[in-house]
Amino acid sequence: MYGGETAGDRTYAFDNARAVQRERLRTLEALLDAGTIRHLDALGVEEDWRCLEVGAGGGSIALWLCDRAGSVVAADLDTTVLSDLSRPNLVVKAHDVLQDDLPEAEFDLIHMRLLLAWLADPRHALRRLARALKPGGTLIAEEMDFVSVVPDPHMPGQTARTFARVAAAHNAVLAEEHGFDPYYGRRVAADLACELSDVACEGRATMWRGAEAGGAIWRLTLAQLRDEIVESGLATSAEVAAIVERSGDPGFSSVSPLVMAAWGRRA
Question: What are the structural domains, with CATH classification, of the chain?
C-alpha cells in the first residue's frame, strides 16, 4: 500500500497505468496526506524554496508544495499518473533514486513517502539525496511498519483470523517477490541519522474501517496481489475474497500500519 518507486533488481508490485492503481494512489492520499501536511506545515515551507518530491506517486503532496514553494520537482520511476499534473512551478521527472544523478546542494526540502522500503539499498538512496540538500535544508521520509496491523477485537473471530492470515500473506509476498520491507518504518530514523543532523521522528496510526478509505485500500491492494498470494499458498482464494468482501462492511476494522515520519537537516 505504497506509492513509490523502485530500482535495480527490485520490482514494484503495482502498475500505475491500471485504473485500480490510480484509485489506490488516490485512496492512499486520502489516508495519509493530512499527516504529511501536518509535518510540512510544522516545518514552514517558504515561497522561495526549491523542493523535491521523490517517489511522488499520485502527486497530491507535490501539488500542495506547488502552492507554497517557489519550484517543485516531482520524481518517480513511473510518471504515468504524474503526467496528468500541470502547474507553472512543477517539473515532472522520471528518476531512479539509486542511479540517476541529482544536482549537489540544490533543494531546500526533499520529501518522500512510502519509497525507501521498496529499495534494495535505502541507505545509499539517502546518502545521494542528502547531498542534493542545500546546507541547512531538510529531508523528511515517511515509511510504514506493519507491526501494528491487527484486527479489531470486536470483529467476529473467524473474520479476524482470516484477516490476520491474509495480512501476513500480503507482507510475505511483498517481501519475497518484490523486495519490500514491511517493517522498515522502525529503521528510517536511524538510517537518516547516518546522513543528517538533528534527526527526529514521530509515528502515527489509526483504525482502518470498512466502507471507508481504510477498507478500500485493502480491497484495492488485494485486487492486485490476489494471484501472487494464492500462488504462495499462504492464503486461499476464498480467504482473500472474504477480506475483499468484508472491506466494504462498516463492521470491518483493523489498526493501520504505523507510519513513521523522520526528518533531519544537512549541517
Answer: 19-265 (3.40.50.150)
